[in-house]
Amino acid sequence: MLKIDNLNVYIDNENKKILDNFSLEINDGEIHAIMGKNGIGKSTLCKVIMGYPFYKITGSIKYNNVELLGIDASEIAKNGIMLISQNPPSIEGVTNAEVLRTALREKSNENIDIFKFNKEMEKICDKLCLDKSFIHKDINVGASGGERKKIELLHMGILKPSFIILDEIDSGLDVDALKIVSNFINEYYHEYKPSVLLITHHKNIIEYLKPNYVHILSDGKIIKTGDYHLAENIENEGFSKASDISEK
Ligand code: ADP
Ligand code: MG
User: Fold this and answer.
1) Mind listing the pLDDT tens digit for each residue in 119-144?
2) pTM for this one?
3) Ligand 1 touching residue 42 (CB < 6 A)
4) Atom of ligand 1 nearest to the CA of 38
5) Which terminus in the chain has less CB density within 10 A, N or C?
């Protein structure tokens, strides 16, 4: 279970508070979506969970009773948490296959059967309709926005995190890619039952993934929680009005 308690996050030498006494609990196997206006702090929340060192933080984030605040991003990843970021960066000089092989070895402490490993990566590329040549290319180099999202999902499929943070995985995807990506996440969810924190602006992915809860983030905290119908209200009515609509 992920338990966030009274989280305060500041930037600019504490002149700006992004999250304000933010609390949230995500039980094992639950999908929670967070929606909110641009610049409200959604990506900040994702990065803070993942150990991004830039912020001044107070409060607590525990995953399976391990305090994540103050530990290294690589330790957080070893605890099974993975962030699929809004803008996956490109990294020259290291290929997807190399980084995944190294990460898997770190995780399992076992030697990897290269033949099986390559086959698994190819199978995932097929499912994602992602050109297999990316497997042995430098991470995200020369990849389009949509391809970058799929490459992140290739990493997810290999590393098998138990807690996935999807920060606007649907942004910039065409309708076909959105379907492919959503189906891949759905299939992963049903096979491995991870917990999911989904950040999105659109109801489409919410209709595919059917989160248990949809939250609205405003003024640094969750101001409303509903089921996936809340996303529909937001898309139809905008945030201010949707926040007033009584819960179903
Ligand atoms: P969202 O993902 O909800 O659109 P973000 O979490 O990216 O919003 O940003 C929240 C606020 O924090 C914004 O006002 C943004 O400008 C600011 N912010 C985020 N990261 C930084 C940074 N590295 N330096 C300065 N301001 C930042
Ligand atoms: Mg963002």
Assistant:
1) 999 999 999 999 999 999 999 999 99
2) 0.93
3) yes
4) 4
5) C
